[in-house]
Amino acid sequence: MTWYKKYLAVYEKPFNEAPQAVIAVIKENIRHLQSDHPLVSVVVIAYNEEKHLLANLWSLSDTQCKYPLEIIGVDNESADRTAEIFQACGVPYYTEHQHSCGYARRCGLAHAKGKYYICIDSDTMYPPKYIETLVRKLEQPDIVAVSSLWSYIPDKQHPWLGVKLYEFFRDSYLFLQSFKRPELSVRGLVFAYNIAYGRKVGYRVDIVRGEDGSMALGLKKYGKIGFIRKRKARAVTGYGTVGADGSFFNSFKTRAVKALRNAGNLFIKKEIYEDEDSNLIK
């Protein structure tokens, strides 16, 4: 059975339809996972994620990890029942009143007690060995951060074969890019780093997106950014911005053309990037 199949029972569903038995199991499992002296801080950021957060926390509650950890949440002042879900599942959370992923991740970083920060997106589900696999890489000498890969949930609009082809080409490109420009292969839903160095770099809060890539860029001066291709570290998520260009085919074509145009950059290091005006928060 696909490891995430059971979580789909509550994915994309309003909280009032969630079985109380499932909520009770999540709460109990998370209680057992929480440590007063964590090595790892698992930080879940959420903004109006009522229909996804429970599935996310359910997957995290099934974590199998030999390292002591804490799971904390950041509610980016949601207007739905996001905060209530954190409460019902027994997850300590903080409210960040300034809206953006940068502010939310910065809030989590300020409250994290561990040595390592695991970025978690609330619309995403994570396999049982996800956290342990990332931390094992972070424990290696000279590694200050790691990124991994993610898959999408096949549905009627996104057939299985098309999704797998898309993921294959995307993953191959990100892997090649990770050698010279690892900061561009980082995505917030599958990213982790050393907290001490992360606090020195800090999160940018003046941009709409790219706060994690910016963090990775700053971390490079302290060590290497590892890239993990193991299935144990592959998350599963919804389609998000993949459908922003219309059909799934158009999305694939748009990204493929952009990747081909930038193929030469795969072999050149870069330390300074210019911000696009459209990505700046006015």
Plain-language structure description:
This protein is of the alpha/beta class. It is built from nine helices and ten strands. The protein has one domain: Spore Coat Polysaccharide Biosynthesis Protein SpsA, Chain A, CATH 3.90.550.10. The chain has helices spanning 20-33, 50-61, 82-88, 101-111, 130-138, 160-180, 195-201, 211-219, 248-261; strands spanning 40-46, 69-75, 93-95, 116-121, 124-125, 143-147, 150-152, 191-194, 224-227, 235-237. Helix 2 links the parallel strand 1 (40-46) and strand 2 (69-75). The termini are far apart. Belongs to the glycosyltransferase 2 family. Residues 41-168 form the Glycosyltransferase 2-like domain. InterPro entries: Glyco_trans_2-like, Nucleotide-diphossugar_trans.
